[in-house]
Amino acid sequence: MQSNPDDITRLTAQALSSAIHARTLSCREVMQATLARIHRFNPGYNALIHLAADEDLLAQADARDAQLARGESMGWLHGLPHAIKNTAHVLGFPSDFGCPLLQGVMPQHDQIIAERIKAAGAIIIGKTNIPELGLGSHTFNKIHGTTRNAWDPSVSAGGSSGGAAVALAHRLLPVADGSDFMGSLRNPAGWNNVFGLRPSQGRVPRWPRAEFWLHQLAIEGPMARNVHDLAQLLATQSGADPRDPMALSAGYAVPERWPEASSLKGLRIGWLGSLNGHLALETGVLDVCEQALSRMTAVGAVVEPLSSGWGFEPEAVWEAWLVWRRALTAQNVHGLIKLPRARELLEAKTLWEYDQAEGLLYTEFERASEVRSTFYNAMLRLLSRFDVLALPVTQVWPFPVEQAWPTQIAGRTMDTYHRWMECTIYATMAGLPAISVPAGFDASDRWPMGLQLVGQPQGDAALLQVAAAYETTIADLLDRRPPEPS
After folding, report:
1. Which of 132, 219, 311, 429 could be cross-linked to 141 through a Cys-Cys bond (beta carbons 3.0 to 4.6 Å apart)?
2. 451 CB contacts (<8 Å, ≥6 apart)?
3. What secondary structure, in 3-state letters, does 2-44 show?
4. Alpha-carbon distances of 141 from 99, 173, 183, rounded to whole Å
5. Of 170, 174, 146, the residue nearest 160 (C-alpha)
6. Which of 193, 175, 152, 153 is nearest to 46 (CA)?
7. Helices marked H in 338-361 — which ranges?
8. E strands of 64-131, at which residues?
9. At what angle do helices 314-337 and 362-385 cross, to 10 degrees?
């Protein structure tokens, strides 16, 4: 048995699972170590919310230990602490989505991902913090406050899965789930030096929700501190469910062996960079991403910079994105806007999305859908030439927590609250898998940055293989730990 709680929380999810099943660690010991770390770190970083009482969680851990004593295991997550992102329903925990109008609302059903994580044996300890309704890539809301970056609490953790990323970086959770509409699994992973995967559209079924047929841009997926844990959680989350008619029939199976760095030899990477200046980028972002790419070229990958010839017009894709985003977001806000004091209590960005959609014509949406279809075909043509495409995972370094969003980048005014995350829309609009992998740190050596790799249609497995091979080249980045509170 390990006596040092920090030694326990330093283990990977897979190592914890193995130790629990070998009975060299008890579920109670793992829960005690996790809770000790949460009580030490969470007050300063605000990653976890709606935390259950310690005594209840320890009692659940004891019940899991009793199951093992009888030779019963629920699955690979047996006895591991887990917190569900506050955009998903989990029985017994409020579904307020960081919105004052929903404060105290309790769900009637588990989200499918919560069902599956529970069925694999996890103990739900609470939820992870998000921005209001999951909108924006800076995690703050009027109910639960601001989540602070694991590496520098004075700056943003990203979002909307900001609480999940910080909880991972500070080892308050072994793995984390999240969701991604405009980089919400990718941006916070990049800013907290962990891995975040946006799976292929339909890979992870979603239920309950009000509408299935159009709401395909927002998906759910995994976050982790290493690729193996990431893949294992994806395997738990993925696979068809009849309650989601748009879910892919095939799940994801974790490979028995992971590749070495040498498997990157001959890998063809299309480096989109700034899209020839279309994307406004802060100084140093491209440099760090290119340093990450150089780790792959050093073992034989072939990187081709693409300053043109993408087959699509970035501004046209952006305009189509705005129509889709407004239409889908407005539907989520529609049920809230009629409640008393709604316009007083909802945040400016939420109201902006709703108001922008007022008067939106079907013909406008149809034209945006045609642009999206043309864009998808352009991405297919690119991916016939390359195995993966690469972009920065965000266009700026983490900004001060007091700032709602970046209003300027390199002298260019941002015309919406989310334009600084434009680099994430390409995987989303095409329904392609995309992963954020740690790329390096800024010139001050304080703030992490991620590199975004976009894979082939439904190519989640191949993309994870690339990420696992890349992971073997960045031991120096992964060995680093964020500062601990004094």
Report:
1. 132
2. 190, 289, 292, 293, 390, 391, 392, 393, 436, 437, 438, 439
3. CCCHHHHHCCCHHHHHHHHHCCCCCHHHHHHHHHHHHHHHHHH
4. 7, 22, 18
5. 146
6. 153
7. 342-345, 348-357
8. 81-85, 123-128
9. 130
Q: Which helix (H) or strand (E) holds 326?
A: helix 314-337
- Structural tokens at position 31: 């829960």
| CA–CA distances in Å: residue 464 to residues 298, 304, 379 | 20, 21, 19
CA distance 32 to 461: 35
Torsion, Cα of 148, 149, 152, 156 (10° steps): -80
Q: Please tell me the predicted confidence (pLDDT) of residue 5.
A: 82
Domains assigned to the chain: 5-478 (3.90.1300.10)
Q: What is the pLDDT of residue 104?
A: 96
Please name the residue that has the structure tokens 């979002």: 159
Structure tokens at 74: 């629920």
**261, two tokens:** 């760095």
Task: Output the DSSP codes for 438-449.
Answer: EEEE-TTS--EE
Average pLDDT over residues 456-484: 97
The alpha-helical segments, DSSP class H, found in 386-474 are 425-430, 460-471
pLDDT in tens, 179-193: 999 999 999 999 999
- pTM equals 0.98
CB neighbours of 147 closer than 8 A, spacing ≥ 6?
45, 46, 47, 129, 139, 140, 157, 159, 162, 163, 166
332-366 residues labelled b (16+ CB within 10 A) or e (exposed): bbeebeeeeebeebbbebbebbbebbeeeeeeebe
Residue position matching structure tokens 């316009």: 343
Measured in residues, the chain has a length of 486
CA atoms within 13 Å, Cβ hemisphere of 334: 10
pLDDT confidence of residue 251: 95
Percent of the chain clearing pLDDT 90 (strictly above): 97
> Residue 323 in contact with residue 365, Cβ under 8 Å?
yes
- Closest residue by Cα to residue 173 from 38, 29, 363: 38
Q: What is the pLDDT of residues 347-357, one digit of tens each?
A: 999 999 999 99
Rounded Cα distance between 404 and 436, Å, is 23
| CA 219 to chain CA mean position, Å | 10
Q: Are 112 and 207 in contact (CB under 8 A)?
A: yes
Whether the per-residue pLDDT at 2 is higher than 70: the answer is no
Largest CA distance in the chain: 65
